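Issue 218. Parser rejects a valid record. Input:
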Amino acid sequence: MRLTHLIAVIPCLALLFAPFLANRVEPRILGLPFLLFWIMLWIVLTTIFMYIVFLLEKNRTDE
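Output the parser choked on:
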Protein backbone atom coordinates (compact mmCIF):
# COMPACT_ATOMS: atom_id res chain seq x y z
CA MET A 1 0.00 0.00 0.00
CA ARG A 2 1.38 3.39 -0.96
CA LEU A 3 1.81 6.31 1.39
CA THR A 4 -0.86 8.21 -0.51
CA HIS A 5 -3.38 5.47 0.20
CA LEU A 6 -2.56 5.61 3.89
CA ILE A 7 -3.01 9.38 3.90
CA ALA A 8 -6.42 8.94 2.29
CA VAL A 9 -7.48 6.46 4.99
CA ILE A 10 -6.82 8.84 7.90
CA PRO A 11 -10.02 10.92 7.47
CA CYS A 12 -12.08 7.77 7.06
CA LEU A 13 -10.78 6.36 10.32
CA ALA A 14 -11.24 9.66 12.12
CA LEU A 15 -14.90 9.79 11.12
CA LEU A 16 -15.50 6.09 11.65
CA PHE A 17 -14.21 5.97 15.22
CA ALA A 18 -15.40 9.45 16.25
CA PRO A 19 -18.66 8.31 17.86
CA PHE A 20 -16.74 5.91 20.09
CA LEU A 21 -13.99 8.34 21.10
CA ALA A 22 -15.63 11.74 21.04
CA ASN A 23 -19.27 11.08 21.88
CA ARG A 24 -19.92 13.78 24.46
CA VAL A 25 -21.77 17.04 24.62
CA GLU A 26 -19.20 19.01 26.60
CA PRO A 27 -17.07 20.89 25.78
CA ARG A 28 -19.05 22.99 23.38
CA ILE A 29 -16.96 24.49 20.61
CA LEU A 30 -18.43 27.40 18.67
CA GLY A 31 -21.75 26.51 20.32
CA LEU A 32 -21.73 22.99 18.88
CA PRO A 33 -21.53 19.74 20.82
CA PHE A 34 -18.05 18.25 20.61
CA LEU A 35 -19.03 15.34 18.34
CA LEU A 36 -20.74 17.60 15.81
CA PHE A 37 -17.74 19.94 15.79
CA TRP A 38 -15.42 16.91 15.34
CA ILE A 39 -17.39 15.72 12.30
CA MET A 40 -17.46 19.18 10.72
CA LEU A 41 -13.74 19.62 11.34
CA TRP A 42 -12.93 16.33 9.62
CA ILE A 43 -15.10 17.22 6.63
CA VAL A 44 -12.87 20.26 6.10
CA LEU A 45 -9.68 18.32 6.86
CA THR A 46 -10.69 15.59 4.41
CA THR A 47 -10.56 18.14 1.61
CA ILE A 48 -7.03 19.09 2.63
CA PHE A 49 -5.94 15.45 2.90
CA MET A 50 -7.37 14.62 -0.52
CA TYR A 51 -5.60 17.62 -2.06
CA ILE A 52 -2.31 16.36 -0.61
CA VAL A 53 -3.00 12.91 -2.06
CA PHE A 54 -3.80 14.51 -5.41
CA LEU A 55 -0.49 16.40 -5.44
CA LEU A 56 1.51 13.34 -4.44
CA GLU A 57 -0.14 11.17 -7.10
CA LYS A 58 0.29 13.89 -9.73
CA ASN A 59 4.01 14.11 -8.95
CA ARG A 60 4.33 10.33 -9.08
CA THR A 61 2.69 10.08 -12.51
CA ASP A 62 4.72 12.98 -13.92
CA GLU A 63 7.98 11.18 -13.24
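Fixed in the parser; the record now loads. The two ends are 19 Å apart (CA to CA).
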